[in-house]
Amino acid sequence: MVHKDRPDAPPHPAGRSHHQDPEPLHQHRRLAMLRRVINDDSLPLRARIAAALVLLYAQPVSRTVRLTIDDVTDDATTVTVQLGDPPSPLPEPVAELMRAHLLSRLHLPYASSRSSRWLFPGRQPRQPMNPVSLQVHLCEIGVPPQRGRASAIRQLVLQAPAPVIAKALGYHDETTTRLVAGAGGTWSRYARRPQSMIATGLQSHLSPRN
Q1: In what order do the strands lie in the sheet with 79-81?
Q2: What mean pLDDT do residues 75-97 have?
Q3: At 130, is the secondary structure helix, strand, or coil?
Q4: Terminal-to-terminal C-alpha distance of the chain
Q5: Rg of the chain, C-alpha, whole Å
């Protein structure tokens, strides 16, 4: 998703060619990481939120740091994040983490950060967190962002149509279609399934049987 009217956002860091996808994590390992991120209160809250967005919604850190608090909506029942169209609902355990993260911003040490609209404010006024710094934080809590993202998107494209996933998560349709082929699946047989399948599939990841 491309956010408009954000002149202070840093440029996207150079990355891999879109044809050089990192090796994804095994599904069981990704889910184990996700459970730890959700349940381990000793981990930094900011890193837990970012890790959840990587492991659930396959968000790259370069896009995660560009999210603002205006991209998060809480109607007291559901928390959604505007990653693409439509907004993506957060499963309840992650929704609670997001609510806690939004409250924690009121106690940040820098006044400029407390008043910032960035979801992950940086130390410099009007700047979001540096994506390289966020990537380091994720690695420090044991979440490899590129491999976690690759694992998440491969799982998602097997649960819902590639165009639906692409639109909802801010990906290019060609990227998700390629990943479907790489995962050995086909999205055409799911073409009539509703977009709510994404949220349903994510919630099932957090159930005890997984």
Answers
A1: 72-74, 79-81, 88-89
A2: 94
A3: coil
A4: 30
A5: 16
Confirm if 86 and 135 have CB atoms less than 8 A apart.
no
Q: What is the pTM of this model?
A: 0.78
**Reported confidence tier of residue 55, pLDDT bands at 50, 70, 90:** very high
Q: How many helices (H) and strands (E) does the chain have?
A: 10, 3
- For residue 184, give both structure tokens: 């050995």
Q: What distances in angstroms separate CA 127 from CA 21, 72, 130, 174, one per listed residue?
A: 29, 18, 8, 31
Task: Report how far residue 180's alpha carbon sits from residue 175's, in angstroms, rounded to the nearest whole number.
Answer: 9
**Contact call for residues 206 and 34 (beta carbons, < 8 A):** yes
Q: Using a CB cutoff of 8 Å and minimum separation of 24, what contacts does 183-192 make?
A: 183/154, 183/157, 183/158, 185/157, 185/158, 187/157, 187/160, 187/161, 187/162, 187/163, 188/161, 190/159, 190/160, 190/161, 191/161
Query: Burial, 124: exposed, middle or buried (Cβ in 10 Å; 0-12, 13-18, 19+)?
Result: middle
Which residues are CB-contacts of 7 (< 8 A; sequence separation ≥ 6)? Answer: none
Q: Which residues pair with 68 in a beta bridge?
A: 118
Q: Which amino acid is at 199?
A: A
